[in-house]
Amino acid sequence: MVVSHYVQVLLRRRWIILSVFIMSVVGAALYVFSARPVYTAASLLLIEKEHRTQVYAEGAIVESTDEDYYQTQYRLLKSRTLLKKVHQKLELSQTEDFAGGVGALDAAIAIAPVRRSRLVNVAVESHSASLAARIANAVAESYVAENLENKLFISKDILQTIYPSAAQKLASPLHELSIDSLPAVVNSPLIQSLKGNYAGLEARWGDLSKRYTPEHPELIRLRSQMEAVRARIQDETAKIVQSMKAELSGQLQGNNVRIVDPAEVPQSPSKPRKGRTLILAALLGLLMGSLLALGVDALDQTIHTQEDVERRLGLPFLGSVPRAVLEGDTLKSYTDLLGGAESFTGESLKNIRTMIGFAAAGKPQKSLLITSTSQGEGKTFMAVSLAIVFAQLKERVLLIEGDLRRPNLHKRFSVPNKTGISHFLAHGKDASELADLVCPTEVPNLSVLPCGTIPPNPSELLSTPKLIGLLDWAKGRYDRVIVDGTPVFPITDALIWGQHTDTAVFVAKFGGAHTSLAVKARQKLQEGGLRIAGAVINQVTWRSNSYYGDYYYHYYYSRYSDYAKKA
Fold first, then answer.
1. Is the dihedral of CA 418, 422, 428, 434 positive or negative?
2. What is the number of other CB atoms lying within 10 angstroms of the CB of residue 394?
3. Are both 371 and 257 inside the same structural domain?
4. In this structure, is residue 273 part of a structural domain?
5. Given this model, what pLDDT does residue 165 score?
């Protein structure tokens, strides 16, 4: 039920949806076909994770196993120092896209890691396809070179110590001091033990040299032991230095980062994506149009459907009548519209006639007031049409002009209007005089009681006891008395008629009066003691699918009529 309600709303407001949809698609089309194309070039890098941690110098640590290692590398790829080098190297200040400096270059670069791999794309956007490829390659190459430089800056200092220059060789003590201070040498347990032994021998040499001459056998033996320990220390130091030379030399020749695929000049722009943009615009247009349609419908407080009549007005629903185009406001136009087996308007009114009979529920209902909330809702059309369809049942019908301010029934039925209700209410003495005021019509069994001269005081005339006598006389001589009353607002004549008629039919124009005003009109009629048989929705546009049920009723009725016609 809820789904069908929303379907009704969307069908009824389809012009809003269509308008928003067209605006969205047209706007997107103007953008995608007028926007300057943007090209994207990407280079693919492989960043291998290092598995070793080496300490080469005091306080300097090269760490390659942190969990944030890759995030650090991604950030280094867009570091200001690296981008500045690229900007200067390619002279990007002379280009249109990157004349704004490093900030413009940073905004054009996107780092996109490949999930579950050690690969990363360095994508660059530019209005120039070739420039985008050049920048992507330059960023990748600069990063590879900088990564190698950053990884080996400690190793270079150590290698300079291991491989001394000519000047360093001349100052050999300083050179030896630098080697001895290497952490790998200082932290060697064997060298530390040997140095301890040497220090002990050196202390003993000092003590004995005070008592003996250098040629003493004990001093000669100590000197020989000290030279042996010193030689051992030098050998062990040389071994450590050779090991570091081999390791550091290998590191200088390797790099854990390399370019897998250099960027190529893109052949087609990456932005705007015409197809995807148009599809998204279409979907967004439908969504926004539907939401707007639902919002407009929620704000629309006019009468459209049976649900509106029953839920908002609190009245039984008698039926709906499609919008009719009369060829002239004459009786013939009414009979042509209502006549024939294929007239859906006629069938709709006959259905309302039947529903009015059901609404009686055994209560007297000879007099019927036709009224509405305000002017222009089709009250007179409904009164004339119902009078005709009741007369088609061979009922004697009297149609009374209840609007003494703007009478027009005499025009529709082409009857004289010199005398009528106003004459009787103002000067009549007996209800029998009404027989001379009633005018027969071309419709069998249908008579009209016109207004006559428009009085200056309609409310006062209708408030006289003669109105009760008029209706009693009419109900005594006719099977059905239909009063074409006035709207409830802004005048009160309909309330006066309602005090003396059996029931009323409330006419609501499709999309006409506001619901709150119609509710007030219904309350006024009921407070005046009038029983309302129900409400009719007039001037419904079937093509708008505004009333879903009657739309399909109309469809199946048309199919049935076509079948009957062929038969």
1. positive
2. 10
3. no
4. no
5. 45
